[in-house]
Hints:
Layout: H1 2-15, H2 23-37, E1 41-47, E2 52-60, E3 69-71, H3 77-85, E4 89-92, H4 99-107, E5 112-119, E6 125-133, H5 142-180, E7 184-190, E8 196-199, H6 201-204, H7 218-222, E9 249-254, E10 261-270, E11 276-284, H8 286-300, H9 310-323, E12 329-338, H10 340-347, H11 349-364, E13 373-377, E14 380-387, H12 391-405, E15 409-411, E16 414-416, E17 419-427, H13 434-450, E18 455-458
Parallel strand pairs: 17-18
Antiparallel strand pairs: 1-2, 1-6, 2-3, 4-5, 5-6, 7-8, 7-11, 9-10, 10-11, 12-14, 12-17, 13-14, 15-16
Helix pairs in contact: 1-5, 2-5, 10-11
Organism: Phascolarctobacterium faecium
Protein name: Diguanylate cyclase
Amino acid sequence: MERSGDTLVLSLAGLLGGKQVDTGVIDRALASLCAAFDFDGGLIYELDQYNHLHLKERCLRQELTLRGSFPIDAVDAAYRSYLAQETFVWLERGQKSSAAEKALLELFAAQSLVVASVVDETLQIYGLLVFVQQSARPVPPAGTQQLLKTVLSMFGRYIGVRVYQNKLTFAKNSLESILDNTGIDIYVNDFHTHDILYANRSMAAPYGGISQFLGRKCWEVLFPGQGGPCSFCPQQKLIDENGEPTKIYSWDYQRPFDGSWFRVFSAAFRWVDGRLAHVVSSADITDNKRNEALVEYLANYDSLTNLPNRRMLVKECERRIDKTQDGDEGYLLFFDIDGFKKINDTFGHEAGDEFLVQLGQFFSGIPLLHDAIYRNGGDEFIAIIDGDKTEANIRNLASFIHHRFAQPWRLKRGEAFCNVSIGVARYPEDGRTAEELLLKADQAMYKVKKAGGKGVLFGYEL
């Protein structure tokens, strides 16, 4: 047995000595072991991520009842710990056996079993080598056990390499799957050469796929025709005075070819080979930007007439006041409709809304009021006029507006007649803030309305 044992060891060493794990080699090694030790069958199981052992290879010299897969919990936890520390165990039905050993014999429907575990550095089992004998066999002599220990150790290490490679592949695929489905676009480039080192699928898809990224400069892919690094690249914000990575930098960016918006995060870090790298991750915030724009619009514009509202009026009025210089003048006009309630009472509130929309369009269509008219609320409208306009210009404007109000407003449910009272405040004479000007113009308008409406009054005439 010694000489044949040496031959077996040398034969297996030759088979298992390659640098690449080969399924064909595993099959031949399994057959050699079954023949050398007269086993009826040899089975190799590997553990998956769900803690199930799956049959990967088999060598059957007789027909056997096979378990294609089974949960690792089918083996008692304490006995698994024992298996992990032993080179192999030899089980014999009929001998004095523990409950765990009897369960293992039943699991493989065997009279005799040799079981060797494939373990990681923490002695966690992630594979089993199982040799089945359908007839009872006594425990072999010490020499045979030592030979079996030697060859199973060699075989276990070879299988362990494959299991380790499979674990790495699974981890790599899992990580890539996560990175490809986070909704975050990611790419990594060399910090100094700008050569792209990695890109996930969602990042690469709009540019033609990952093949368009690897081995190219980042700007060559993202900005075709550009001859060098982007002027807005934040790399120098990512390192300290010693060239070491510091904190994450973020900014918003709009992609030029489709207008999509992204929240971009940049950071410097050490790549797997030790070089300094730049990781850029970005999340599509196009919908957020649209929602922000909608919220901004709703906060600053009247939803019925689409005119800017009082909030915008105050902000714009203060802005214009702030930029005026000595000698500059400006006017704030307060319009209040005479007889608006009658339109609502006669035709209904929908007709009242229809009239307000027409009125907003009429005011906006006047060149002097274009981009200067605001809805204050209800049937009140405000205009801000500055520049080289004079009181005569304002009175001519009021006359034009009153002329239009002398004509009917055509609504879906009939013709409506009404008029408008106009109060005018002049900057800086009537106030130096938006609220002061609004108050003065409101007082002037109210005096016109109290006098019967259809008129214009300046603040200094109060």
